[in-house]
Amino acid sequence: MRRLLTLSSFLLLLSIILVWWNNSRQPKPIELIPTLTGQPEYCLTCHADLPKISASHPVETFGCVTCHGGERLALNADLAHSSMRGGANPSDLSVVEASCGGTNCHSGSEADDRHHIQRVTTSIQSTYAGAIASIRFTFGAQVDLTPRYGINAVTDDETQTGITSLLAFDPLSEANPSIQKFGEECLTCHINAMPREGEDYSRQTGCSACHSVGEHTLTTAIPYTQCNTCHNRGNYDLRTMTFTKRDDHPILRIDDYYQPIGVFTKCEYTLDCIDCHTRSESMGDGDIHKDQASIEYVQCKTCHGTLDELPLTKTLTDPNDIAFTLAFLNPVIDLKLGDTILVTEKGEPLWNIRILPNGTYEMYGKATRQYFTFRPVMGTACEQNPDEQESHYCHECHAVEH
Amino acid sequence: MRPSFFHHLHPPTIPAAQARWRHTLGAGGTTVFLMLVLGVTGILEMFYYVPNPEEAALSVQVITYHVPYGGFIRNLHYWSAQLLLIVSAVHLLRVIFTAAYGHPRRFNYLLGLGLFVLAIMLDFTGYILRWDQGICWPLTTGTNLIKTIPFIGDFLFRLAVGGGDACKTALTRFYTWHLFGLTIPVVVLGIWHAFRVRRDGGIAVPPPHARTDNVRISRNELVRREVLTMFIASILLVLLSSFFPAPIAPAMIGKPSPDAETRAPWFFLWVQQMLKWGDPFIFGVLIPFGILVILAFIPYIFPKPADSDIGTWFPKSNRLAQVAATVIAVFIIILTLLNR
To answer: Is the ipTM, as predicted for this complex, more than 0.85?
Structure first.
């Protein structure tokens, strides 16, 4: 008995040493108390080496939990991650309101230009309304091209386009097998769809589909390669309702920019998509649009003018002008009060293009920071009829052959 | 050796045959030890636990991850509670299978059965005190069963839960039930139970004329055996607590998500399985209560075990009680396994 007691007390001591050893090898918790919440969180214990998300979302202010959710006190990975919003991507549109919303953040008023979520969820990039309407019309499920369905149901109470709402598209309730197959095969290109497999298509969903370039980053300097994860990667075959991957593997940017079938000018492949296409074109303007063509409006003449007219300009006199905000978020140009920048016919600032004293323009690439100068068309030898300004007219002379 | 306080808690000598581990399985003594561990670890947890719906789950996370050795203490509390149910059940079966419940121990058998029921309720209330995503649906199911009882169901529900939506209101009630409403009766009944063991003549043995073995051991030896059992139980507890952490889930914000845990805690899985069969009052209340009544009546209406059979394993004279207890145990185990 005494021997048993000795042995068992020795084993008990050993097991207590095990507890001490187990405890001593736990990582030391790293506490962060974000100024916005004032509540301690311990995510940095494991994630201290993550890149900073963006200059606008400093971790000291926001912490991790404000956007990501999760159990802020847990030091066990499974528990800590179990209540995260949208898995690793809190900007997925299914959770974006909780993650990125709020009147002081991205679901504020239109007057404050904080209605980003409302813009995105009604935008053609999210609704895919034009494609759905086009297919339904083609296969006889609707009598015109007016959109009735989007990827998700959305409403717009203050419509400027006449479209007040879209119902959620349900391919299974469609009678026509081609529309059903469209639903199965062709719904991967709206921004909340999981991308197709393969590195070429690799992107996240929701806001991050465009704004996350690389691991744990948010940026407004979106390079064309990010757009290419959806655009320029192949074609849908409407006969078989299948996606045909692009089979060339372009090395030169000129080849990568558009599909081989395309015709384009030098600036169209030298610049990035966002250098010409504005915020409202790519992210929506808050209204439900019928298709891509009805939201895109920037043309060659927006920057270059015509033989009769110079491009529209605006002299910055208000320090709160949105142009300064945009230049602050993506500091490629040192805009100052008194600078004259180009604006579109809808009044959107082309804040990275500034008029020079000699009447020419300077431009900084938003994604590349490349510096360009260019002249207006007025006063050149261009012979184009000022009433025919769509890009295909310009391509007649200015297309790049290679 | 001058007997210490702990030696004095024991009779000077006890029969050697019945003091063997293979006779008692050490179960009664182990429940006392586990309750002591539960008391100490529970008090330690109280230093950090915040019994308010917004902070309870977060304070459990603080205990688990940030208080030095807090996770270990919480695991000890959890594993002691789970082992307590198993060891209590083993103790109950041992008492039935060795016909130890016979006169004069019939009343103490009832005290023991009451302690067992209290231990189950303590386990359930303790589980609810996690107050995280994992507890809301089982809490709702469990407390709604109370409402199905005719006439007094609503009153009992209000008594247990405090009325309204259990997932919003039950925490304060359950905290008080766990710490006082159930623990104080356990302490009182436990001391009474131990007192009655001494008063009723110690471990059940055949009467002197029917004994074949009159060898006795001293209380010094008994205490040594108890200490050994305590050490072994401690090692088991420490190992379980080191390698198998107590369950925890994300904090509840409003209602839990629909994919939160819906399974009852393991000791109620058998009842939950029966709920799939039909009327919740019959399967969730009446049958479990009926089983308890059958167990309670074993010393009173089942055939009396022969005097010479008291304190011997599987005697013929209480065969019916053995069969009943076995059927109940197998029934509960099978239902538990079915609920996957």
So the answer is: no
Residue A402 has pLDDT above 60, yes or no: no
Q: How far apart are alpha carbons B282 and B84 in whole angstroms?
A: 28
Copy the structure tokens of residue B24: 């008692």
Helix then strand then coil, % of chain B, to nearest 5: 65, 0, 30
| Separation between Cα atoms, residue A183 and residue B294, nearest integer Å | 61
Residues of B with Cβ-Cβ distance to A12 under 8 angstroms: 231, 234-235, 238
* Distance between CA atoms of residues A58 and B68, nearest Å: 31
- Hey, what amino acid is at A289? H
Of B323, B126, B1, B61, the closest CA to residue A79 belongs to B61
Contacts of B260 in chain A (CB under 8 A): none
CB-CB under 8 Å, B250 with A79: yes
Residue A376 phi, psi (nearest 5):
-75, 160
Q: In which residue are the tokens 């210490």 written? A: B4
SS in 3 state form for A228-295? HCCCCCEEEECCCCEEEECCCCCCCHHHHHCCCCCCCEHHHHHCCHHHHCCHHHHHCCCCCCCCHHHH
Residue B204 contacts residue B18 (beta carbons within 8 Å) = yes
Amino acid present at A99: S
Q: What pLDDT, in 10s, does the model give residues B30-76?
A: 999 999 999 999 999 999 999 999 999 999 999 999 999 999 999 99
Is A281 in contact with A298 (CB distance < 8 Å)? Answer: yes
Chain B nearest C-alpha distance from A100 (Å): 18
Are residues B143 and B166 in contact, defined by beta-carbon separation less than 8 angstroms?
yes
In tens, the pLDDT along B107-165 reads 999 999 999 999 999 999 999 999 999 898 899 989 999 999 999 999 999 988 887 88
| CATH superfamily placement of domain B10-338 | Cytochrome Bc1 Complex; Chain C (1.20.810.10)
CA distance B61 to chain A (A): 6
For the record, the structure tokens of B240 come out as: 């379980």
Q: How far apart are CA A342 and CA A353, in angstroms?
A: 6
The alpha-carbon gap from A279 to the nearest alpha carbon of chain B, in Å, equals 36
CA-to-CA distance for A279 and A284, rounded, in angstroms? 7
User: Residues 6 or more apart from A203 whose CB is under 8 A from it?
Assistant: A195, A209, A210, A212, A226, A229, A230
Select from B66, B242, B249 the Cβ nearest to the Cβ of A29.
B66
- Report the candidate in B233, B237, B314, B240 with the shortest Cα–Cα distance to residue B29: B233
- The C-alpha atoms of residue B306 and residue A147 are separated, in whole angstroms, by 88
Of the given ranges (A262-271, A320-329, B227-236), which has the lowest mean pLDDT?
A262-271
Q: Using CA coordinates, name the residue in chain B closest to A3.
A: B228
Tell me whether strands A242-245 and A234-237 are parallel, antiparallel or unpaired. Answer: antiparallel
Per-residue pLDDT tens digits for B254-296: 777 777 888 899 999 999 999 999 899 999 999 999 999 999 9
Mean model confidence pLDDT for chain B: 92
Minimum-distance CB partner of A73 among B65, B68, B239: B65
What is the number of other CB atoms lying within 10 angstroms of the CB of residue B38? 23
| Domain spans in chain B, listed from the N-terminal domain onward | 10-338
Quick one: pLDDT at residue A401?
66
